[in-house]
Design brief:
The chain has 214 residues and is of the alpha+beta class. The protein has three helices and seven strands; from the N terminus they run αβββββββαα. It has a seven-stranded antiparallel sheet with strand order 4-3-2-1-7-6-5. The radius of gyration is 38 Å and the shape is elongated. The N and C termini lie far apart (145 Å). It holds the Pfam family Ran_BP1. InterPro entries: PH-like_dom_sf, Ran_bind_dom, RanBP1-like, RanBP1_RanBD.
């Protein structure tokens, strides 16, 4: 509100003009601290992304006998470039905090949650809290198609993990069989060598025969 006193009003106008002039100086103030970009590693650099979808994750609390929200974010299916192992990782969208992190094994079985075709549940040994825990998860997607795609991808990788484990088991059994054959062969060879080796009595008898002949 403007003052009724002319002198005071002039002072106010002069102050406003001065303030306006200060605002229009266009001076640029250099920042006191200059922040440089820092490369952030997620641990996913050596993995290929097989699936990346937005979803909301829940964990079943056994003590409270209820579902508790773990977070909303991006759920990924990642395959390691060297080992070929596949894992499920989910991070919260804002904090990037991990809310699910476990391998996809043959034992993982997914099923629709309570008749909701946008959600599914499964059990897994999870490592998101820094230690292995048996958890029951429920994930909800924005569409039926995304939920089906997620379930199909996980089931496919679980089946592949089972075949890989079976193959590795057969290779291990085969290697063990070859080692056993080598071990048996060495044992028989040692026994034969012992049988063919002259005993002390044989050597003494041979020396006695040689003496008599002389």
């Amino acid at each position: 509100m403007a003052s009724n006193d002319p002198e005071r009003r002039e002072e106010e106008e002069a102050g406003e003009t001065a303030a306006g002039e200060d605002e229009d100086t266009g001076a640029q103030i250099a920042p006191i601290v200059r922040l440089e970009e820092v490369a952030v590693t997620t641990g996913e650099e050596d993995e290929d992304v097989l699936l990346d979808l937005k979803a909301k994750l829940y964990r079943f609390d056994k003590e409270g006998n209820q579902w508790k929200e773990r977070g909303t974010g991006s759920v990924k299916i990642l395959k390691h470039k060297e080992t070929g192992k596949v894992r499920l990782v989910m991070r919260q969208v804002k904090t990037l905090k991990i809310c699910a992190n476990h391998l996809i094994l043959q034992s993982i079985k997914l099923q629709e949650h309570a008749g909701n075709d946008k959600s599914c549940v499964w059990h897994a040994t999870d490592f998101s809290d820094g230690e292995l825990k048996d958890e029951t998860f429920c994930i909800r997607f924005g569409s039926v198609d995304n939920c089906k795609l997620f379930m199909e991808t996980v089931e496919k990788q679980a089946e592949a993990a089972g075949k890989k484990e079976e193959k590795e088991s057969k290779e291990a059994d085969s290697a063990a069989g070859e080692l056993e054959k080598l071990s048996v062969g060495e044992t028989k060879g040692e026994e034969k060598a012992k049988e063919e080796a002259p005993t002390a009595a044989d050597e003494k008898e041979s020396e006695s025969t040689e003496t008599k002949a002389a």
